[in-house]
Amino acid sequence: MITAETVSSIRTFDSGGLPVVSLYAGVDPGPDGQRELRSRMSSLLDEIRPLAKDGIAHRDWRMSLRGDIARIKDAIGEERWRPAAIAIFACSGRGLYTEVQLPEHVPDRVIVDETPYARPMIAVLAEHPRSCVAVVDRATGRICELYQDEVSELDKVTDPESRRPPVAAGRPDDRVSNRVDELAKRHYRRIAERLAGLMQTDEYDLLIIGGHGYEVPEFVQQLPHPVRDRVAGTFSTEPGLAPLTEIRESAGAIAARFEQERDQQLVSGVLEKAAMGGLATVGLRGCLWAGTVGAIQTLLVREGAAAPGVVCDQSRWLARSGEVCPLCGNPTRTTPDVIDELAQLVINEGGAIHHINSGGAGLMGHDTGAELRFPLPEPPADGSADGA
Ligand SMILES: [Zn+2]
User: Fold this and answer.
1) E strand or H helix at 186, and its extent?
2) How many structural domains does the chain have?
3) How far is the CA of 71 from the centre of ligand 1 (A)?
């Protein structure tokens, strides 16, 4: 599973001056896809092989890069990656080798630098919310992470003192039951502090709480306000016994609803801003121009949308048609899907992408919409007016 910890360890990796190989490759389904992937990845390695030759850089640098190339070459032979894409980060001289499966397509690319090239990975992963899930009762607590369909346990807390109520023979007197409440509160506070720490890191989009129906509200009360505000939902379960599959199912439904509502808010935000002449644009023509000038903060794409178009590789002008780029006069290249080219450009600029489920009103019949960083300049008179 791609945990927040994996992502953060890649993002903050220190190579100490050694080369880090960042390799991205799209993975198509089926045996043909695997064979084709092997050959594309081998060509990517061929691109960086000359860097590891004698005399180019100092010895440790070259040896580390050679180690990375050998390791990735071995991995290619094993053909075990799932669609839609794979990212590999390697720096053998500092013990880094991480594979990250990506749920969306990214273009093939290999980069050798002193830091991992993590931006496409972060942009793709940020599209889906990451949940922190706490399953608690008065004596135990389990903290899990849920991302897409996978759940992993981060932490387990058992408070031995409050495990068994110290009930003396006969009926418990008030003093004993007060003591039990006190221990439970202390246990709740410990878990609440841990959750506050996790939610502060910004690695989690939402918090989900599970437990006995009669205890969950009591626990939620113990959460500090900013943390409580991020509780997206609660579910009922037997805390000590619930298998991870059950936690995944119950919490997954809450996370899916959260993602849907978030997407809906993004859509209505863009539609409203665009209608009022604010920092947003709706429709492919406006979005292509916004992408060309680097103005897109968040790109919304209708799920499954694709459109042929043209690209200028010199000035990165994007449009539905036009043989000559109006910005620099160079010939354009045609592409079967200019929306994909636009998405890659947005990611490279540090923007975000969200695929919008085509159910409901969606983007009012448009394929794309975008939140902008700045007002768009006038598009060139020529070419970009084609198609909407
Ligand atoms: Zn151009």
Assistant:
1) helix 174-200
2) 3
3) 39
pLDDT surpasses 60 at 388: no
Instruction: Report the predicted TM-score, pTM, of the whole model to 2 decimal places.
Output: 0.79
158-163, Cβ contacts within 8 angstroms, sequence gap of 24 or more: 159/183, 159/186, 159/187, 159/190, 162/138, 162/186, 162/187, 163/139
Residues 89 and 167 in one domain: no
Q: Tens digit of pLDDT for each residue in 104-114?
A: 888 899 999 99
Angle at 118 between CA 23 and CA 296, to 5 degrees: 115
Closest CA to 140 of 111, 109, 161, 170: 161
DSSP-based three-state secondary structure for 84: coil
Q: Give the other-Cβ count within 10 Å of 210's Cβ.
A: 25
Say if residues 81 and 27 touch (Cβ distance below 8 Å). yes
Distance (Å) from CA 350 to ligand 1 centroid: 22
Tell me, what CATH number does 164's domain have? Answer: 3.30.420.60
CA 319–ligand 1 middle distance (angstroms): 11
Instruction: Specify if 318 maps to a domain.
Output: yes
How far is ligand 1, taken at its centre, from the CA of residue 292, in Å?
10
Give the pLDDT confidence of 190-242 residue by residue, as tens digits: 999 999 999 998 889 999 999 999 999 999 988 999 999 999 999 999 887 88
Domain residues for the domain of 335 are 279-372
Count of CB atoms situated within 10 Å of the CB of 218:
16
**Does the residue 388 lie in any domain?**
no
Residues that place a CB less than 5 A from ion ligand 1: 312, 314-315, 317, 325, 327-328, 330
Distance CA 255, CA 147 (A): 9
C-alpha dihedral sign at 158, 162, 166, 171? negative
Q: How far is the CA of 377 from the centre of ligand 1 (A)?
A: 16
The Cα 66–Cα 62 span in angstroms is: 6
d(CA 85, CA 106): 6
Query: How far is Cα 376 from Cα 291, in angstroms, rounded to an integer?
Result: 10
CATH number for 289: 3.30.1330.30
Same domain assignment for residues 292 and 344:
yes
Q: 118 in helix, strand or coil?
A: coil
Rounded CA Rg of the chain: 26
Q: And the tokens for 383?
A: 């070419």
212 is a domain residue = yes
Q: Are 184 and 162 in contact (CB under 8 A)?
A: yes
